[in-house]
Amino acid sequence: MKTLLALTIATALAISTIQADTITLNSSGSTFIAPINGRWFAEYGKLHPDVHVNYQSVGSGQGIKSFVAGLTDFGASDAAMSDADIASVKEGGVVLLPMTAGSIVLSYNLPGLTGTVQLPRDVYPAIFLGEITKWNDPKIVAANPGLNLPDMPITVAYRADGSGTTFVFTNHLAAISPEFKTKVGGGKTVKFPVGVGGKGNEGVAALIKQTPGTIGYVEYGYAQQIKLPMAALQNSAGKFVAPTPESGSTALGLVELPANLRAFVTDPTGDASYPIVTFSWWLCHAQYTKPGEADAIKALATWCLTDGQKLAPELGYLPLPNSVVAKVQAAVSTIK
Amino acid sequence: MEAATAPSSATSSRWIGDKRAQRSKIFDAFFSRATFVAGWGTVALLVWIALQVGYSALPAVRQYGIGFIVGTDWDTNNDVYGALPLIYGTLVSSALALLIAMPLGVAIAIFLTEDYLHTKISGIFKFLVELLAAIPSVIYGLWGIYVVIPITTPMGNWLNAHLGWFPLFSTPSSGPGFLPAAFVLAIMILPTVAALASSSLKTTPQALKEGASALGATRWDVIFQISLPIAASGILGAGVLALGRAMGETMALAMLVGNNNQISASLFAPANTIASLLANHFGEATGLEVAALMYLSFILMALTLGINAVAEIILERTGATIRHL
């Protein structure tokens, strides 16, 4: 008992001495970026035991709020940050850093169907508006000549909780369908006219898996992990493209990033581009006052943009194209 | 009388020492102050929470007024908020859960209190039922998704196909919906019903039961004509208390109710509840939606407080009847 006590005290002392000269960075925000952030910060912590990063996966909106209020050293958001939010940051300005990217897929449950369902641009917004209600609708059949589509009602599954996934998906639908834009619009929680809401990616995935005829949107990494079938979608060039890391990266590589690095890719161009992709941002101050803090954040971001990108595919994210990485690194170097 | 005897006994034991009396006096004073502070602190906390929620809800109250309660849309993009489908979903899912949990809970209570089992065995049963209350809500939700929904879905589709004219079965099953949500909710409130019903059944005077048996009443006669009528208002109170608990339940419902803000008579249609919408929307809410969510919280708080007050009154009355006997 006494040895145990002594050991505990020794360990506690050891930990406290280590922590005495570590830098702790606090951050919070997007749930979408949380898995890769967690992995990055753990791996980085192994290489640099003097830097400790806390990340709270509280949602993009809350991440922006905490960052603006000065509660965190940096934030993370799937919707970057609005000009109004940037203006409300007290001093020094904000640097937006696209750190990773992802694609969102339409997964479905059609038992006994072999082959990939192809969905045209006028069809999948109509499904989420409740206007196309059967899997053997003439428009779907016409786009899938080789498939024997069943006479089965379509059940729509959506995210019930506010999420960046919904934000990206609905903004894409609003971009390609004027009707969707007026009736529903883009946002983190929208009012879908039909369907069932699941909580989180896992909730939507469970809905899809359990009810034949269901279609829903989930993050690519999630669908891939649990082996859900994913539809090939028609992109702005009129080609049907299946979601893969390559087709997603292709879409991102063609994006013209503006000076503030805030670009929402609602309808990417290019023949081989998968149409529903998004960046996910870190929100950093342009100037840090605490000694060593700016250097720590810059070193961390640089590592995540280089070595860290290699972890992206296995976690279901899209590695950033080199052209994008170069621009983001230039932005990182401006942080003081 | 008691007040008069206490000081006299104190004087007779003076030889123990004034010190000790003094010390216990100080301790008494301290203790009574502490309980006073704790007691009023609880009340103050409740009032403070209510005021805080009400204050945060003010922008939405000003904007939507009483129309919020009858509005049917929850549209973040256009800042149109209405609570009716949520209030409806909350009340219906809780009522359905109660409908399932009451007979089960009372049956368990009778089984455990009316000498069917050896005390030791009934103790084990009681412990197991109470353990249901210890299972985290999210586990119930997962169990609901992976076990209950696969059972209720084909059942719902069959009922819809054969008895679809009946309003309760008017839609095919969408997976999550009222039925799986209410079923899981029923299991969650079962310990509350069973425990409170047991304790009010236990208050039946043994003499009355023995008397009835002596007069030739069977066990069923005793249960239905002596125990249950005496415990009736206590059981009712248990039900109302469980209803209050069911209405506030969040996680399991968010996972099972389908999260669709619609009003449908069908048991198999997706719906939404106040607590579930709060849990789903709070993380990403900004601006007026935060106020609208606070307004919604205030409504939920008023509903559950009202229901708990009713339960308290009913339980109080039970106490009165028992004392009277």
General description of the model:
The complex is a heterodimer of chains A (336) and B (325). Chain A has 336 residues and is of the alpha/beta class. Chain A is built from 13 helices and eleven strands. In chain A, 47% of the residues are buried. With 325 residues, chain B is an all-alpha fold. Chain B folds into two domains: 64 residues; 253 residues, MetI-like fold (Orthogonal Bundle). Chain B is 76% helix and 1% strand. Chain B has a two-stranded antiparallel sheet. In chain B, helix 4 runs antiparallel to helix 9 and helix 5 packs antiparallel against helix 7. Chain B is flat. Chain B starts with a helix and ends with a helix. The chains are: A alpha/beta (336), B mainly alpha (325). Chains A and B meet through helix 3, strand 7 and helix 9 of A and strand 1, helix 6 and helix 11 of B.
Brief rundown of the structure:
The complex is a heterodimer of chains A (336) and B (325). Chain A has helices spanning 2-20, 34-47, 60-68, 83-87, 124-128, 138-143, 164-176, 178-183, 200-210, 220-225, 245-253, 293-305, 322-332, and strands at 23-29, 51-57, 74-77, 94-108, 118-119, 155-159, 196-198, 214-219, 232-234, 240-241, 277-285. With 336 residues, chain A is α/β, with parallel strands linked by helices.
